[in-house]
Design a protein that fits this description.
The chain starts with a strand and ends with a helix. Helix 6 (125-138) crosses helix 9. The chain is α/β, with parallel strands linked by helices and 455 residues long. It has 4 domains: 2-123, Rossmann fold; 141-225, Alpha-Beta Plaits (2-Layer Sandwich); 243-350, NAD(P)-binding Rossmann-like Domain (Rossmann fold), CATH 3.40.50; 354-454, Alpha-Beta Plaits (2-Layer Sandwich). The relative contact order is 0.10. The protein has helices at residues 10-21, 33-42, 55-60, 76-90, 108-111, 125-138, 171-177, 215-225, 243-252, 265-274, 288-293, 309-321, 334-343, 352-364, 447-454; strands at residues 2-6, 25-30, 46-49, 68-71, 94-98, 121-123, 142-148, 153-159, 183-184, 187-190, 193-196, 208-214, 235-239, 257-262, 279-282, 301-304, 326-330, 348-350, 369-375, 380-386, 410-417, 420-423, 437-442.
Length: 455
C-alpha cells in the first residue's frame, strides 16, 4: 500500500517503522529538513520537506495515488485540517488523524457527523494507554485481556511474577484445582520463545501464557487462578500528573486509594482541584525520603507515567526495591524497554507504541485480519483471522488445517466456531469452514503479508 505519514514525530516514525516491515510504500512529510534526512539514512522511505497541510506538499508526497494518509504531527488541529484537505482535494480512501488531547473525544461526533466524515478514524494514544493501564490495575497479573467473537470468548495473556503461587505447578495441577470451568492454556512463552503446552508442563518464574475461556467464566476463573497473592490493587501511587496519570486517577479514585506525585507546582494545583478523592503530592520522583514518608512499602501498584523514560524506569526500580508489590513504567525507547524487561527489575514495561500500533493496524489491514494485541516491544502479535470467501471463492475453505503450510514464525493455537473453542491438540482432523475465527501468534512480522494472501 502507498501510505503518507504527516509528521516526523515519535509516533509518526514508530508508525513508519512498523509499516515498512510489512513492505508498504511509505512517504513522510515534515518541516524539519535535518530530521527527515536522518530518517532517510536509516529507513527505506521517501521524504518530502514542507508544511504538512499544504496542497503542493501533499501533491509532491503522492497524495493523488495514496491509499492511506496518517496525520501524526504535534498539533491535533493540524492533523484534523490536513485530513480534511487530503480527503477533499485528493479523495484519499482512508484518512487517519492522531489526536493527543482528550478534549476532542467527548465532542467528536458533534464536530465530525457520520455523513460529513472526512476523517475515517481517530487514534487517541493517551486514551488507549489509560485503558490499558486500568485493565492492568483491575486484573492483577494479567498483561492483556481481549474479548472475541461478539464478546463470548476471552483471550488473556498472563505472566508469573515472583510472588506467584503458580511457580512449580503443572497445567494438570491447575486444572485439578479449578473445577466447573472449561479453560485452555495453549501457549507458554519462556525466555522470549513460544511453545505449545502439554498437561505436564511446569510453570517457571517469568513465564507468560495465554488463557482462553468463555466470557461468562472469566472473572470466576481469574479469582481461582489468581497468580498474585493479593485480592486487588487498592493502594496506587502514580508518578506524573499529566493527562495519563490524571486520567487514571479520575476513573479509579472512587474505588482505590490514589496518590499522584507531580513535579510541576502549577499542574499539581490544577489536578488537585479537579480530583475529589486522590492525594496530590508536589515533589520529585528521585526523592527517596518522600517515598519513605508516603509508605511506599504499602503500595499495591506503583506506576510511573511521566514524559521522561529515565524518570519512569529509575523511580519504578526504586519503588520496587523499597517494597511496592508491583511497579510499572511507561517507556517509549525500545532499547530501554527490552533492557528493563530482560533485567526483571520492574514488573511490567508499558511500551505505548504497541498499544497505538495494534489499533492502527486494524484500520489499514484487510477487514478479515484483526490485530488483537502486540507485545514484546511489538515483535510478537496475536491476530484473529475471519475466514471469508474472496471474489466468490476461497482456496482455504474446506482444507484440513494440518495440510496448510504456514509461513515462518506463525502458530495457530485456537479456532472459534459457532461459539465453540477448538484448541491446537484437536487440529488434525479439522477442516477450515467459512466464518471460522482463527487465532494465531505471529513472531515474524514479515509473514503477515503471506497470511493476508493465504486467508
Amino acid at each position: 500500500m502507498r501510505i503518507i505519514i504527516l509528521g516526523a514525530t515519535q509516533i509518526g516514525i514508530n508508525i513508519a517503522e512498523f509499516l515498512l516491515i510489512e513492505n508498504n510504500d511509505i512517504t513522510i512529510v515534515d518541516k524539519n529538513e535535518l530530521s527527515l534526512f536522518q530518517l532517510q539514512d536509516r529507513l527505506d522511505l521517501r521524504v518530502v520537506i514542507g508544511y504538512e497541510s499544504r496542497l503542493e506538499v501533499l501533491r509532491e508526497a503522492g497524495a493523488e495515488q495514496a491509499d492511506i494518509l496518517i496525520s501524526a504531527t504535534c498539533s491535533d488541529e493540524m492533523n484534523i485540517v490536513a485530513c480534511q484537505i487530503a480527503y477533499s482535494f485528493f479523495s484519499i480512501p482512508k484518512c487517519i488523524a492522531v489526536l493527543k488531547s482528550t478534549d476532542y473525544i467527548e465532542i467528536e461526533d458533534k464536530i465530525f457527523p457520520e455523513n460529513q466524515k472526512y476523517i475515517n478514524f481517530f487514534i487517541h494514544p493517551e486514551k488507549m494507554i489509560i485503558k490499558h493501564l486500568i485493565d492492568f490495575i483491575e486484573y492483577p497479573g494479567i498483561l492483556k485481556v481481549i474479548y472475541l467473537f461478539n464478546d463470548t470468548v476471552v483471550l488473556s495473556l498472563l505472566r508469573i511474577f515472583d510472588n506467584s503461587s503458580l511457580v512449580g505447578s503443572s497445567i494438570v495441577d491447575i486444572k485439578n484445582k479449578i473445577s466447573g470451568i472449561d479453560f485452555f492454556i495453549p501457549i507458554i512463552i519462556r525466555d522470549g520463545i513460544p511453545f505449545f503446552s502439554i498437561h505436564s508442563t511446569v510453570f517457571k518464574l517469568n513465564d507468560e501464557f495465554f488463557i482462553l475461556c468463555l466470557s461468562k467464566h472469566f472473572l470466576k476463573l481469574i479469582k481461582q487462578l489468581r497468580n498474585i497473592k493479593q485480592t486487588s490493587n487498592k493502594n496506587i501511587m502514580l508518578v506524573g500528573g499529566g493527562n495519563i496519570g490524571f486520567g487514571i486517577a479520575r476513573i479509579l479514585e472512587r474505588k482505590c486509594n490514589i496518590k499522584i506525585l507531580e513535579l510541576n507546582e502549577k499542574r499539581a494545583k490544577m489536578i488537585s482541584k479537579r480530583l475529589e478523592y486522590s492525594t496530590v503530592l508536589l515533589g520529585n520522583a528521585s526523592d527517596i525520603r518522600l517515598f519513605a514518608e508516603e509508605n511506599i512499602g504499602k503500595i499495591d501498584i506503583f506506576i510511573s507515567v511521566t514524559n521522561n523514560d529515565d524518570t519512569n524506569i529509575i523511580s519504578s526500580i526504586v519503588a520496587k526495591k523499597m517494597g511496592s508489590k508491583q511497579s510499572l513504567a511507561l517507556v517509549k525507547n525500545e532499547f530501554y524497554s527490552e533492557l528493563i524487561n530482560f533485567s526483571k527489575k520492574v514488573d511490567e514495561i508499558i511500551f505505548p507504541q504497541e498499544i497505538i500500533m495494534s489499533e492502527l493496524l486494524n484500520r489499514i489491514r484487510s477487514s478479515n485480519i484483526i490485530s488483537l494485541f502486540l507485545f514484546h516491544t511489538g515483535k510478537m502479535e496475536v491476530i484473529e483471522i475471519i475466514v471469508r470467501e474472496k471474489n466468490g471463492s476461497s482456496l482455504i475453505i474446506g482444507t484440513l488445517l494440518s495440510q496448510i503450510t504456514l509461513p515462518p514464525g506463525v502458530i495457530i493455537f485456537a479456532i472459534i466456531r459457532y461459539n465453540n473453542l477448538i484448541i491446537f491438540d484437536h487440529f488434525d482432523d479439522i477442516r477450515i469452514e467459512e466464518e471460522d475465527h482463527i487465532i494465531m501468534l505471529c513472531t515474524n512480522r514479515i509473514s503477515i503479508k503471506v497470511i493476508e494472501k493465504l486467508f
